[in-house]
Amino acid sequence: MNDLLTFIAQSPSPFHAVDNLCRELLSSGYTRLAEGEWWSLAPGGKYFVTRNGSALLAFRLPEGPFRGFMVSASHSDAPTFRVKENAELMGPEGYVRLNTERYGGMLCAPWLDRPLTVAGRVLVQTAENIETRLVYVDKDLLLIPNVAIHMNREANSGYKYDAKCDTIPLMGLGEEKGTFRALVARAAGCGPEEILGTDLYLCPRQRGLVWGAQEEFISSPRLDDLQCAYGCFRGFLAASGSGSVPVYALLDNEEVGSLTKQGADGTLLADVLRRVCAALGAEPAAIAANSFLVSADNAHAVHPNHPEYHDATHRPAMNGGIVIKQGARYATDGASQAVFTALCRRAGVPVQHFSNRSDLAGGGTLGLIANAHVSMNTVDIGLAQLAMHSCFETAGARDTEYLVQAMTAFYSASFHEENGRFALE
Ligand code: ZN
User: Fold this and answer.
1) How far apart (Å, rounded) are the C-alpha atoms in residues 152 and 164?
2) Which one, 15, 94, 112, 178, has the greatest CB density within 10 A?
């Protein structure tokens, strides 16, 4: 469990998450491919490719012909606040604040009154070209202060947060203009004038922890979706060979609709699968029919204080195993559910089911979006958690291991469909 929390702590932005996985892939013998070059892929080879530094795809090739792709997809981003280009707000009084806008649909209240900093990437002008540098300002730099209850008597009765004022973080008192840029430049190892572009986001400083009377819970920033990203990755690395190509996908921008080149609505997954088919002389349509996608994004556990928000007969529990999600905004159908349930049974992993209460819209995820580009049998799954889109979320301490077990079995298998008969072998 501590490995998950360490991974999350070291991944304060999607760029850091992808960078951490790249390092692990390189040390596990994987070859890095560049999208802009010709790929010479060898049987038995292990490869990965990134796009925008915030999305990643890794895959292994079998020695002989292959039947299909066994794919998992999760997302690298989480709701937060994006720091604007001209970031410093000077005043009122001597206060210096950072101008931000919302990224994704966060719960606002948890972001207040806790230490924050910034993380992301900056683009730096060097003598030869423009270089990407990852940035994490490693100090308690920012805080969004609440208004005292004496001044805002409405604070405890359904307060509406105004993004242009209520969630603006405070950085200092009396600092000169340019202080923030200088801090970021120092973290990037360059001068402030060498920074040509930035993608910087707020992140909580609090580390994840294990808690509860019997250590049954974990709480951490970004459990949605780094818990699934991590569990699928461990399963991908641990799996043994099969007659299919295991593919690990981590995509960005799910929280803002996936409509970017590095998101599920971009072409990364389709491009890579097509290139693998071309390199191995396989027919993409035949391969897709024998491929399977696990879209892994966290699910809602029944809330202890508000059990009424869940459907009467679909009530996922933390530490209850993998949640299969069904409904209009999910890709799961009877067939994909059956195949994945059979797999979990074989792996000794419990499954439970989520469906929205019929009068609630709920949220969507990347399974359906990815399917529009690469159509294959798909199941939407997740691990049960509380306080989704808070900046400090809570999940079951035992569920990550269930996901690792299930995904190890998944990546060790091949999928085959013929006239309504389905096999995972
Ligand atoms: Zn998510």
Assistant:
1) 17
2) 15
Q: Which residues contact 28 (CB under 8 A, 6 or more apart)?
A: 46, 237
pLDDT in tens, 45-69: 999 999 999 999 999 999 888 899 9
Q: What is the pTM of this model?
A: 0.97
Please tell me the total count of domains within the chain: 2
Q: Do the domain assignments include residue 276? A: yes
CA of 133 to the centre of ligand 1 (A): 26
For ligand 1, the distance from its centroid to the CA atom of residue 70, given in whole angstroms, is 21
Neighbours of ion ligand 1 (CB under 5 A): 224-225, 297
Ligand 1 centroid to 365 CA: how many Å? Answer: 7
C-alpha dihedral sign at 99, 104, 105, 107: negative
Q: Are residues 351 and 255 in the same domain?
A: yes
Residue 51 Cα to ligand 1 middle (Å): 19
**If you measure from the C-alpha of residue 297 to the centroid of ligand 1, how many angstroms do you get, rounded to a whole number?**
5
Pick the last residue of a domain from 178, 204, 230.
204
Residue-wise pLDDT for 183-204, tens only, equals 999 999 999 999 999 999 999 9
Q: Are residues 94 and 45 in the same domain?
A: no
CA 37 to chain centre: 27
Cα 253 to averaged position of ligand 1 atoms, centre (Å): 10
| Main-chain phi, psi angles of 208, to 5 degrees | -65, 160
In terms of residue numbers, what domain contains 344?
A: 2-78+221-424
* Token digits of residue 323: 């949640």
